[in-house]
Amino acid sequence: LFQRFYCRRSFAEFEVRAVAGASLALATKLEENHRTLKDVILMVYRVQMRALEEDGEPVFAGRPTPTLDLSSREYDEVKREVLRAERAILRELGFDVATFLDHPHRYVLEYMHALEFPRELLQRAWSYLNDSLRTKLCCTHQPDQIALASILLAARSVGVKLPDRPPWWEAFDATSQSLKDIAEVIMALYSRPLGEHIAVPRRRPPVKAAALAEGAPCKSPSDEEGAEQPDPPEADGAIARQESAVPDAGPPQPQSAVPTVVPPVMPPLARAPSGFDSELGREEDRRKGTRRSGAGKEKERQRDRKKDRDREAEKDRERDRDRDREKEKEREREKDREKE
C-alpha cells in the first residue's frame, strides 16, 4: 500500500509518517488483524521519538520513550493527518485494496513445500522477501515471481543446488531473465545506506484571487536593514551650489534666501469603489459557508461510517449465532447416533 501510493503521489503532498501509519491501519483491516487507530498513532509517535538524535546520539537512549497525550492538540493533529492519508490511499488505489492481499510470502511457503528444501533455506528466503519490501518490486512484478527470486538468492547463499535439468523455475511458469532482474534489485538494496527520514517541505497551496485583490504592502527598499542608500537628492546639490555662491565678506544670508526644492504633493490614493468591498465580503461569506458545509459533510460521513460498522458488527453477531445453531444441531445429531 505504501509503495503503490507513492508511485502515484509526491512526498511533498503527504507526510511520510502519516502515510506509513495509514498504510499500517489499512493493512490490519485487510489481514483480519485489526488494531485501533489510537494504537497505530501511538506506535508512529513512539518510533518518531526513538529516532530523535542530539549530537549524533539518541535522545531517549537508556530511558523510557515519552508517550503521546490522547487529550493533547498534537494527538488530534496526528490523527487528522493519518485519516487524511488513509482517504488519499483509498482514492488513489480505487478503493480496491483487497487485491493487495496476494503476498509473495504465501508462495514461498507453497514452493518450499513442493521442493522439499530444509528450513534454513526457507528462513533465508523469507528474509530476502522482507527486505524486498523496501524496493518497488511489489509495484512492478508479480508476487509469485518475487518469491521465486528470493528462493534463488537463498539457495545461492546457503549453498543448496537447485534442479537444473529441467530448470526448476520452468515448473512455476517463470523465466531465468525475470528472476535475474528481480534478484539484482534485491541485491542492490544492500549497497545502499540505511534508510532515514528526510523532511520534505509541503507544497504551498495556490494563491486565491481574493488574496491577490488585497494587494501587497508598499515598502521602500531602503527600509531594509543594510540596504544600499540612494544618492542625495537634487535639492541637496542646489543648496550646496547656493552656499558656495555666498560672498565671504558679507553677513550670512538668511535661511529663507536659500532656494529649496519642494517635492511635488502626491494626490491621495483613490478609494476602491464600494462594490469592491462588498464583493470581498461576499467572497469571505462564501468561504465560511464552504467550511461549514464541509464540516457538515464530514459529520455526515462519520455517521455513515458508524452505521456501516454497526451493520458489520450485527452481521458478525448473526454469523456467530448461525455457527452456534449449527454446533447445537451437530451435538443433537451426535446424541441421536449414540442412542441408535
Terminal-residue CA separation: 57 Å
Mean pLDDT: 70
Structural class: mainly alpha
For the biggest β-sheet, the strand order reads 1-2
Write out the CATH superfamily name of the domain at 1-100. Cyclin-like
| CATH architecture label name of the domain at 1-100 | Orthogonal Bundle
Estimate the strand proportion. under 5%
Major sheet details: 2 strands, antiparallel
Helical content class = 55-70%
**Model regions low in confidence, pLDDT < 50 over at least 5 residues:** 209-277
CATH topology of the domain at 1-100: Cyclin A, domain 1
Task: Give the CATH class of the domain at 1-100.
Answer: Mainly Alpha
> What's the number of extended β-strand segments?
2
Output the number of helix runs. Answer: 12
SSE topology string: HHHEEHHHHHHHHH
Radius of gyration: 36 Å
Shape label: extended
Q: What topology emerges from the helices and strands here?
A:
Layout: H1 2-6, H2 16-30, H3 37-50, E1 53-54, E2 57-58, H4 73-92, H5 104-115, H6 119-132, H7 137-140, H8 143-158, H9 176-189, H10 209-214, H11 234-244, H12 274-339
Antiparallel strand pairs: 1-2
